[in-house]
Specification:
The protein has 2 domains: 77 residues, Beta-grasp domain (Ubiquitin-like (UB roll), Roll), CATH 3.10.20; 84 residues, Orthogonal Bundle (DNA polymerase, domain 1), CATH 1.10.150.120. Helix content is 41%, strand content 15%. It is built from 5 helices and 5 strands; from the N terminus they run ββαβββαααα. Strands 2-1-5-3-4 form a 5-stranded mixed sheet, with helices on both faces. A hairpin with a 2-residue loop joins β1 and β2. The longest helix is centred in the C-terminal third of the chain and has 37 residues. Bound molecules: FE2/S2 (inorganic) cluster (FES) (2 copies). The site of one FE2/S2 (inorganic) cluster has 12 residues, from loops.
């Protein structure tokens, strides 16, 4: 007997993906095989390693523990969706590059998504906070030291960019004010 298929509309990385999948299709498999977003990696497939972590409405979730049908209506961000609007690296991506936060890279998408959400919640983490932030993700290569450094650097880059945007705004406002008084 052939399996019943369901039409599912996934909102991924600010776009919409229309897929037709069995009810048992895992979100991780749907992202990789049905949406072609192979940046999400699958390691243990039972919620332990964190490699498959994506953001669901901004919250890190193990995509191997969710069904694709249950993700309909949610805003999903995979590692492919982390880059800035102008395609430059996000603070976390930039920090991993600067601090050598990866070796083989298999675990990296899960760390990048997890930390992206982590520094939104805690923009100025201590080293202990950074270790807590990544406690649910496994890496077999790095020994975690450079990943912890990457968390701290990512938060710093994020703060620097926010300060830069604020001063650009202030400069824009003051230009505008000067024009107003002429
Ligand atoms: S593949 Fe999902 S937690 Fe390991
Ligand atoms: S860099 Fe290889 S598993 Fe983390």
């Amino acid at each position: 007997m052939s399996e019943e298929l369901h039409d599912v509309q996934l909102r991924v990385n600010a776009g919409v993906q229309q897929i037709r999948v069995p009810a048992r299709r895992l979100l991780s498999d749907a992202l990789r095989h049905d949406c072609g977003l192979t940046g999400t990696h699958v390691g243990c497939e039972h919620g332990v390693c964190g490699a498959c972590t994506v953001l669901v409405d901004g919250v890190p979730m193990r995509s191997c523990l969710m069904f694709a049908v249950s993700a309909e209506g949610a805003e999903i961000t995979t590692v492919e969706g982390l880059t800035e609007a102008d395609d430059s690296l996000s603070p976390v991506q930039q920090a991993f590059r600067e601090c050598h936060g990866l070796q083989c890279g298999f675990c990296t998408p899960g760390f990048l998504t997890t930390i992206s959400a982590g520094i939104e919640t805690n923009p100025d983490p201590t080293e202990d906070d950074a270790r807590d932030m990544i406690a649910g993700n496994l890496c077999r290569c790095t020994g975690y030291t450079n990943i912890v450094k990457s968390v701290l650097r990512a938060a710093e880059i994020q703060r620097e960019r926010a300060d830069g945007a604020e001063s650009d705004d202030a400069a824009g406002r003051s230009r505008h004010d000067r024009q107003d008084v002429r």
